[in-house]
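Section 4.2 – Deliverable D4.2 (structural model, holo form)

The reporting period included a commitment to supply a predicted holo structure for the target in complex with zinc ion. Inputs used:
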Amino acid sequence: MKKFLESSWTIGIATTLLGFILTVSYDLIKEKQVFTTIGKFFSILWGWIITFLTFDLKVWWVLLGIAVIFFALYTIVKIIEKKELLKPEFTDYTQDKFRIWKWSWGWKFNKMKNVWQIVNLQAHCPKCDTPMINKGFGIFQCPRCAYNPESYDHEEPYEVVKVISDNLYRQKNKGEIQS
Ligand SMILES: [Zn+2]
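Output (structure tokens):
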């Protein structure tokens, strides 16, 4: 506060304001009307402009100002990045029991398509819960207990993906998942 009161700016503004008020009062008393006042006002305004343009600027103020602007921009960018990385609630849904087997999967955001995609979809062994090896053509095998389903009557990955999205759709429509 002391510094503020002592600063040339404060003193300058206070002095000119006081001068202006005194001039108006003087004019009113003398009934000279406002011409002198207007003239004074413009000279004061001019004085302010000159003071502003020839203000004694310290280099470290400028550097500090630039640093503050950079920091603010950096913070804004970081906040935007963090928002992009925020996972929606449905990405917690990573495993489920389907018609015959239990399956697990992960979620990855596809920036090109701007959608969340299911990745690393794996069928779990019904005997030991180990993710099974998909040998293709509907053949699966457990790497732990060598379980090898003889029947082809089990769900295929594309069916599981379809059911996952349908489950999410049903849940969302129930109002259980916020989007
Ligand atoms: Zn197994």
